[in-house]
From TrEMBL:
Residues 74-93, 109-128 form the Helix-hairpin-helix DNA-binding motif class domain. The RuvA-RuvB-RuvC complex processes Holliday junction (HJ) DNA during genetic recombination and DNA repair, while the RuvA-RuvB complex plays an important role in the rescue of blocked DNA replication forks via replication fork reversal (RFR). RuvA specifically binds to HJ cruciform DNA, conferring on it an open structure. The RuvB hexamer acts as an ATP-dependent pump, pulling dsDNA into and through the RuvAB complex. HJ branch migration allows RuvC to scan DNA until it finds its consensus sequence, where it cleaves and resolves the cruciform DNA. Has three domains with a flexible linker between the domains II and III and assumes an 'L' shape. Domain III is highly mobile and contacts RuvB. NCBIfam families: ruvA. This is Holliday junction branch migration complex subunit RuvA. HAMAP family: DNA_HJ_migration_RuvA. Keywords: Cytoplasm, DNA damage, DNA recombination, DNA repair, DNA-binding, Hydrolase. It is found in: Cytoplasm. SUPFAM superfamilies: DNA helicase RuvA subunit, C-terminal domain, Nucleic acid-binding proteins, RuvA domain 2-like. It comes from Paenibacillus puldeungensis. Its main location: cytoplasm. Residues 161-207 are annotated as: Domain III. The gene is ruvA.
Length: 207
């Protein structure tokens, strides 16, 4: 089974990247493909941690920038009612640390804001995973539980946190200001930070 792939980004779509590994293009589905946009611009060799998913009618690759996200994804798909697509949605809607903290602190309100998660599935996540996530992410028994409006900002939903993440990828203040002018009418009041960042990266990648 494939555990990781190392190569250059050849193509980016809204749901996946194509990673060129020594002349072979692997389609890898990701929570937020546009986090690899900065690497794509510089044609850097990157490592994507893989979950190799085999079913009767398809062989699929799901990829993550960190080993921690890969581990959390595998824990999530062990929960009854959560398949790979829903698990990707969870990781695109909330950071791993926030998801792990919400599970530990039984924060149903936060979990049900994640894509594809209803109250019953959130309860199953807590029941199945609460004791299996010790030591993962930055969780501490003294962490504050994420609030239901975790991704909101009094002026612009999700943008301040998304902006910091984009700056870490190497984008300038001027580039981010221009991107926000195009983006601000596209985001919803309850939109998750990762979703805001994904839309911003699509704009930045397109130029």
């Amino acid at each position: 089974m494939i555990d990781f792939l190392r190569g250059q980004i050849a193509h980016i779509e809204t749901e996946y990247v194509v990673l060129d590994v020594q002349g072979v293009g692997y389609r890898v589905f990701c929570p937020n493909p546009y986090v690899f946009a900065a690497k794509n611009q510089n044609q850097e060799v990157i490592t994507i941690y893989i979950h190799h998913h085999v079913r009767e009618d398809a062989i699929l690759l799901f990829g993550f920038p960190t080993r921690e996200e890969q581990k959390l994804f595998r824990k999530l798909i062990d929960v009854s009612g959560i398949g790979p697509k829903v698990a990707l949605g969870i990781l695109s809607g909330g950071s791993p640390d926030h998801v792990i903290t919400a599970i530990h602190q039984e924060n149903i309100g936060f979990l049900t804001k994640l894509p594809g998660i209803g109250k019953k599935t959130a309860q199953r996540m807590i029941l199945d995973l609460k004791d299996k996530l010790e030591g993962m992410g930055g969780f501490s028994l003294f962490d504050e539980a994420p609030t239901e409006d975790l991704t909101l900002h009094e002026a612009h939903p999700g943008w301040p946190e998304a902006r910091e993440g984009l700056k870490a990828l190497g984008y300038t203040e001027a580039e981010l200001d221009r991107a926000w002018q195009r983006l601000k009418d596209q985001v919803k009041a309850d939109e998750a930070v990762d979703s805001v960042m994904k839309k911003a990266l699509k704009i930045l990648y397109a130029g």
